[in-house]
Amino acid sequence: AQTVTQSQPEMSVQEAETVTLSCTYDTSESDYYLFWYKQPPSRQMILVIRQEAYKQQNATENRFSVNFQKAAKSFSLKISDSQLGDAAMYFCAYRGQNTGTASKLTFGTGTRLQVTL
Amino acid sequence: GAVVSQHPSRVICKSGTSVKIECRSLDFQATTMFWYRQFPKQSLMLMATSNEGSKATYEQGVEKDKFLINHASLTLSTLTVTSAHPEDSSFYICSAREAGPNSPLHFGNGTRLTVT
């Protein structure tokens, strides 16, 4: 079974600084998707960024970028120029391609990010 | 963008009663919807996969007779918590996926259920 591990329960970053959130996963599949979701206090799940495993190039979305290391099964999220609005719970998630795992999202335990002035 | 509407956002019910939560895809058809449960300060745990026109697929440990799922149309899935107990109090979130292998998942805003 696929598992997703986030080893940092809480992180803190100063406004305008850069922070990296860690995520590792375990899978026997070769094709899959990885995601980072943000959950602010409103509890709405917001997709931050996604990465297809077959792509070697790391995904970027404005201030958000990932460091995808397929061999190490690592998928970290870097937030640059942190803003107060970035404060939220961040979940790393995995989605497989094979029947039985396709569409199902497996979430990590989350990292609570605080942004300080 | 695609929107998933979940209703109600909050519900309080008494022990022993049943409560229904609706999940609607507003501007797309969703053959598959997912129901998650989230305890305070914890991650989202998949409860079941709702398939339009067929029976839902439940994850291990989820009681199908307690959490009834109906996906009667391509835009609506419902989760009914039957004979609710205080331990069923939680945050329930649905998500829906558009057609296509690479389509993203869209989440509803969630329902906070409190059983007294």
Taken from the alpha-carbon principal axes, the silhouette of chain A is globular
Query: Helix- and strand-based class of chain B?
Result: mainly beta
Whole-Å distance between the termini of chain A?
A: 41 Å
Q: Alpha-carbon distance between the termini of chain B?
A: 37 Å
Let me know the number of strands of chain B: 11
Low confidence ranges of chain A: none
Q: Mean pLDDT across all residues of chain A, rounded?
A: 93
How much β-strand is present in the residues of chain B?
A: over 45%
SSE layout:
The complex is a heterodimer of chains A (117) and B (116).
Chain A: E1 3-5, E2 10-14, E3 19-21, E4 24-26, E5 32-39, E6 46-52, E7 60-61, E8 64-69, E9 74-79, E10 88-96, E11 105-107, E12 111-116
Parallel strand pairs in A: 2-12
Antiparallel strand pairs in A: 1-4, 3-9, 5-6, 5-10, 7-8, 8-9, 10-11, 10-12
Chain B: E1 4-7, E2 10-13, E3 19-25, E4 32-38, E5 44-51, E6 57-58, E7 67-73, E8 76-81, E9 90-97, E10 105-107, E11 111-115
Parallel strand pairs in B: 2-11
Antiparallel strand pairs in B: 1-3, 3-8, 4-5, 4-9, 5-6, 7-8, 9-10, 9-11
Can you offer a commentary on this structure?
The complex is a heterodimer of chains A (117) and B (116). By secondary structure, chain A is an all-beta fold. In chain A, 0% of the residues lie in helices and 52% in strands. Chain A contains no helices and 12 strands. Chain B is mostly beta strands. Chain B is 0% helix and 53% strand. The N and C termini of chain B lie far apart (37 Å). Chains A and B meet through strand 6 and strand 11 of A and strand 4, strand 5 and strand 9 of B.
